[in-house]
Amino acid sequence: MSISEKNSISGKLMSLFAGCGYTQYKMSKFEEYELYAENKAFLPSKSIITFTDTDGRLMALKPDVTLSIVKNFRDGNTEKLYYKESVYRTDSNTSAFAEITQAGIEYIGDVDIVGLSEVLSIAQCSLERVSAQNVLDVSSLGLLSALLDRLGADGETRLRLLHCVEHKNVHEAAAICDEAQVCTENKTLLLQIMTLDPDPDNACAVLCSLDAGDGWGKEAENFKKVLSALDKSKLRVDFSVLNDTNYYNGLVFRGYINGVPSAVLSGGQYDMLMRRLKKTSSAVGFAVYLDRLDVFSGKAEAPYYDTLVLYGKNTDAKAVCEIIRSAAKSGMTVKTSKETPENVKYGKLVDLR
Amino acid sequence: MDKGYLNIALPKGRLGEKVYTMLENAGFGCPGVMDNSRKLIFENEETGVRYFWVKPSDVAIYVERGAADLGVCGKDILLEYEPDVYELLDLDIGKCRMAVAAPKGYVDERDRTLRVATKFVNVATDHYRKAGRQVDIIKLNGSIELAPILGLSDTIVDIVETGTTLKENDLEVIETIVQISARLICNRSSYKFNSVVINKLCGALAQIKEIKNDKDLR
């Protein structure tokens, strides 16, 4: 995907968000380090670029957008915000810092079933604007937590089971249940959730028919209500979508585009983060990872210019500048060069050598 | 990622050959895969699968990055590198264990830092962290057994299959960390868009595995 296409995707997303009544949120590239140090588990990468400001405060290049937005939110309001920002994180493969561009929305305040459905619906529209071949996977941490509570799985066992759920590792989940002496009925329930038919109608029918712990029935009903408001043709229920339960609760979701090896969209309800930052409101949001779209469509095309101007030692600079001015005025593109450049396409050639 | 075919990364060597036989028996064969040639990629238009042989430790990278939709690699690789992939099936082949080994008669002095030589830095670090033991991990890329013999380390953390290499070097297993076997792994995104064929292949492999296990029991 070329830079212009990527820009146009981010442009399409921004216009989608604005068109849905969200207001653009601009933020500084850095924040006080303390905010991130206290909420490191919320961040996808734990390393943060820090520096000391002129007044001695320890600052950080922003590794995340949501934390900054939540920090500045005041309870009592409902805010619908969108952003396109760079964040600075370590790359899991190279362990080196990288600048990553994200575009996304945050819905903070009184988030109800309609609000949740709205955000998921915008997530689906965002994927659609990137490619028609997309899928949105949705899971419920509320349901999963209720089930793990029923299993009596805590501490290390809970973490190991969550790891298995995240990786669709049914064989090891079964072994851990046996090891932890989970009863057959509860073990079957867990394995049933891990191998659930992803079709939203089928999945919701199963989930609503189960009784798998305190609060399960209400969670399942709410889950069904949200999903029934969405375009089901590209929606799947998949409990392997997980986020840190210390920060996220309720619905979590991830979007995929055919041809991109990892998720391009990630989001969820993060009421627990709100509580940690001493806010009483609820919140939901998602981000689209624009950089991951780089691998979307293979070969880059040679850049095209309406006019290619070749000039030499004795060319009058005025003549070159006149062509540039004229092109700029008429909205045309122009490239100047001393030699015919390789891998460049052009419409008209003006040779001033 | 070519969407016309289901791309499967096989680990070069004996394990890969066993895996391919299972896949062939499951109805996903491809002519030429087992030929001893320098060809790297094999396609079967009829079954819609494309195989390629890669270094065993690279399989997870091919799958995580989407160059392969599916792959087979040892649990040791998954534990060490923690690739973000689905682990769909334990194939019950290539069985061995990740273990701590030391020279025969070794006595652990718990009042000093333990020196551990290994290829599997993350697995070893995690194991000793859980045990609350302070360790000095020494990363080696091969001939791990040499380290305690030459005094480079007190113990080693390595894969043990039959234990013959350990025995020949006067070493013995003092603790098993985890059982290892070959796993079928899948790229997360590929699973979303090819779930029908992937689940079909997975189900067929599970059946082959059951038949094999039944035979072994008899």
- Rg of chain A, rounded, reads 25 Å
Instruction: Give the SSE order of chain A as H and E letters.
Output: HEEHEEHEEHEHHHHHHEEEHEEHEE
* Strand residues, percent of chain A: 15-25%
Beta strands of chain A, count: 14
Describe this structure in words.
The complex is a heterodimer of chains A (353) and B (218). Chain A has 353 residues and is an alpha/beta fold. Chain A folds into 3 domains: 177 residues, BirA Bifunctional Protein, domain 2 (2-Layer Sandwich); 110 residues, no CATH class; 48 residues, no CATH class. Chain A has an 8-stranded mixed beta sheet. In chain A, strands 2-4-3 form a 3-stranded antiparallel beta sheet. Chain A is elongated. Chain B is α/β, with parallel strands linked by helices and 218 residues long. A 6-stranded mixed beta sheet of chain B has the order 2-3-1-4-11-5. In chain B, a hairpin with a 4-residue loop joins β2 and β3. The longest helix of chain B has 23 residues. Chains A and B meet through loops of A and β5 and α7 of B.
What is the topology?
The complex is a heterodimer of chains A (353) and B (218).
Chain A: H1 3-19, E1 23-24, E2 30-32, H2 33-37, E3 50-52, E4 58-61, H3 66-71, E5 79-90, E6 97-109, H4 113-130, E7 134-140, H5 141-151, H6 155-166, H7 170-179, H8 184-194, H9 200-209, H10 216-228, E8 235-237, E9 249-257, E10 265-269, H11 271-276, E11 282-289, E12 304-310, H12 317-330, E13 334-337, E14 345-351
Parallel strand pairs in A: 1-5, 7-8, 12-13, 12-14
Antiparallel strand pairs in A: 2-4, 3-4, 5-6, 6-11, 7-9, 9-10, 10-11
Chain B: E1 6-11, H1 14-25, E2 41-44, E3 49-54, H2 59-64, E4 70-74, H3 75-81, E5 86-90, E6 96-103, E7 114-118, H4 121-130, E8 135-139, H5 146-149, E9 155-160, H6 164-168, E10 171-180, E11 182-186, H7 188-193, H8 195-217
Parallel strand pairs in B: 1-3, 1-4, 7-8, 7-9
Antiparallel strand pairs in B: 2-3, 4-11, 5-11, 6-9, 6-10
